[in-house]
Structure formats: C-alpha cells, structure tokens
Design goal:
With 238 residues, the chain is α/β, with parallel strands linked by helices. The protein has seven helices and 15 strands. GO terms for molecular function: DNA binding.
Length: 238
C-alpha cells in the first residue's frame, strides 16, 4: 500500500508516520509512505495509480488541502483522501469534495484504527479484476472501473469512456457472477448488472451513471433495488 502525507508540520508528519507503521506492522501488510511539506510538490508526483491513500493537511502555505484534494479527485479518483486539521470548521466542505475522513489533530492510534481497516479493504477491492475475452485476447478489467454490464446480442462491459464487447461463449450470468459476489454490484433487471459506486442517483426507474447513461431498473425489482442503493450510500458513501 502506498501512502502520501502532505503536511507542512514536520512534527505532525513524524507522528503520523510512526502510527501508520505501527498499524501496518500489526496486520503484516507492506506500506510505502512518502512525505511532502506542501501540496505543490505532492501534485508533481501524482498519477492515476501512484497512491492508494493520502493524508492532506488543510491549512498550508501556498495551495491549501481543499484545493489540492479537488485535483486529486480528478487526476487520481481511486486515491482516498483523509483531511487533517486542527479546526473542525471545514468538516462539511471536506465531505463535499468526497474526502473519506476528516481527522482533528492531534492524531492518535485510536483515531487511526477507526478508519484504516476500511481503507485497506478498499485497496483490496480495487485490485479485483474481471477476466473476459475481448477479440482474441483475455483481458483483466478492474471491478472499480466497471460502471455496468449489459446483455444485448453479446455481453457489453461499460466503463466511464469505453465499452467492451465480450466475445466469450459464456452466458451473461456466468460472466457477471464474480461481480455479484462484490457488494458494490447489483442486478437491477434481466441482463443488467450495475456498480453502485459509479451511480449518481435513481431517477424514476433508471440508475443515472457517472457518465450520464441511464440504466433501466425492472419494475419488479425497483423497490428492492432502491432500498439496497440507499443502504449502500449510507454504508459506504455518506
């Protein structure tokens, strides 16, 4: 797991590094921690898959943590952001920019333990891949990149900016079975499986996806699907 700490206080960085190493040693998971004293230097290293998690101080000279986190969300959407601050005045703003947590300093081992297991779980989930045949090649598509799967004449895997047609002789049910074992995915009709993590809302009888696509929900399943989506939002997104 690779973690970035962006904080202009060397003392606060040192405390956090110590606590993180203690946590990851207990669960026997390798961790690579990189320290930055300002947001600008951190952003020069940022690529889509560079970091799994970053701890971002809000009050820093130059670019503040709120501004930097907006860039992180666009450039590396899979990187989780934990805000650090000595004041709680920006808690609401922190969640608006989709930070995973907002931690008040001083950081303690107890505070770390409250959310780091969830972060580790998310990293494990991000590594899951769906094996499918596309053309004549076997492809590994990250679960986290899939918006939805649709059965037409063949199975289509819809990503944010692309659609892959699966050439396997497997049925739609066989192809999507691994997805439905993951809590993020739900069958909302015959031949339709949706990743709720990429769903903005339900509008009448459709999921509205992040790319603007409208994915139909069967009337028979609408009530159950709506309940599961609400539960998912409260449990994992809000």
């Amino acid at each position: 797991m690779k973690i970035a700490i962006i904080d202009d206080s060397a003392t606060d960085r040192e405390v956090l590094v110590t606590l993180l190493h203690m946590f990851f040693e207990k669960i026997n998971l390798p961790v690579d921690i990189i320290e930055f004293s300002c947001a600008e230097s951190f952003l020069t290293t940022l690529e889509p898959d560079t970091y799994n998690l970053c701890f971002m101080d809000i009050f820093m000279d130059g670019m503040n943590g709120m501004e930097a986190s907006q860039i992180v969300h666009k450039a590396a959407p899979d990187c989780m952001v934990i805000f650090l601050s000595s004041s709680d005045q920006y808690i609401g703003e922190g969640y608006r920019v989709r930070a995973l947590r907002y931690l008040l300093k001083p950081i303690t081992a107890e505070k770390i333990q409250e959310f780091l297991p969830e972060c580790v779980e998310r990293v494990v989930l991000s590594q899951r891949r769906l094996s499918v045949s596309i053309g004549r090649k076997e492809r590994q598509i990250p679960f986290s990149k899939i918006l939805y799967a649709l059965s037409s004449s063949k199975t289509e895997i819809h990503l944010l900016n692309n659609v892959f047609t699966v050439s396997s002789r497997q049925t739609f049910a066989q192809i999507t079975a691994p997805l439905l074992e993951d809590y993020r995915f739900i069958s909302c009709g015959r031949g339709v499986v949706v990743n709720m993590a990429h769903t903005l809302k339900i509008d009448k009888d459709c999921f509205i996806m992040e790319n603007g696509d409208r994915v139909p929900i069967s009337r028979r399943r609408l009530s159950d699907v709506t309940d599961r989506f609400i539960d998912f939002q409260f449990e994992y997104l809000i």
